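Exam revision sheet. Question 4 asks you to relate a sequence to its structure. Input first:
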Amino acid sequence: MKILACSVRGGDVCATVLAEKEDCLRSGGGHAAVEGCIHRFADEKGLPALALARVTRMQETADGGIEFDFDAAVPPRVKLGKYLGLEVYVPADESPDLPVLRAAAETLEADIPETYISRKIDGLVRQRLEDVAQRPGFNTLADMYAVLRAASGELALGYDDNALWDMALAVSDELNTGNMRARSSREITELLASALYPGAGGDHAFAVIERALENRAACKRAESVETIAEESFASYLRMAGKSMAELRGEFRPLAEELVRIDLLIDEVAAREHITLSDEEFDTALETIASMYELPPSEVLGMIGASTLRAQLVRDKARAMIVDSADTF
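Answer key, structure tokens:
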């Protein structure tokens, strides 16, 4: 292994590493070689086992090695404050979990690497994307924008992107909130034509729009679920009038809070020497399998035994903190 470039700042790590041919042969595969090199990198730099390691680039070299970039974080040292027997006000209609954990996390001391917060924001953005993907209105907006852009380009109407988005919003609003009935393709074409041409567009414009609608439908059939979700998310951002950077900024306070709670739970689990018996593991596995109507072996194949066991230990630590609180 060769370290080609490296930066360690404030607990945030990024590096370019070469897994040489011997590393790949010894480990039995490319991904295993990369994982092994990340562990060796930490050892050579005198760092503890790295957290949140993510490979951002992999490229095979001419001599059978692998050059890759990765970023990760050095787990912060955590100093716990009071976490048992806290007095916490909890509104009558709220679960005590978050208020209690938030109160306990406020007493925690740690220099948290930016990577922890960035990864948590990634997760919140991903969750929002998944939520948006379930809402057909944003999918409709993406469709209308794509059709209007294609038709405007073919007709050489000269509309800029902002104008096309405004048109798409108007058409989508009409489709989604008009009278809540299914619209025929002819009606949709007329709505789009009236957006592009406040007056009459003529038969040629109608033909162009109909062709753009057909092309969009064909593209949607060929697109992956992920691509369609990303298009809907772009529509959501446009409708909300914010950039991805602004959305991430909005999520930052929550991300920071959730990271502190995660560190709290992990440190409590370690300090209290919380363990999980085989019986507790099997019972939890059966419960999850029953919930999703899957065989336990399939659940383990998807989650992994070590990942599930770690989460169950964290659940016990979480319950210890919450159950000990005096809520009012």
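Marking note for examiners. The CA atoms of residues 226 and 293 lie 25 Å apart.
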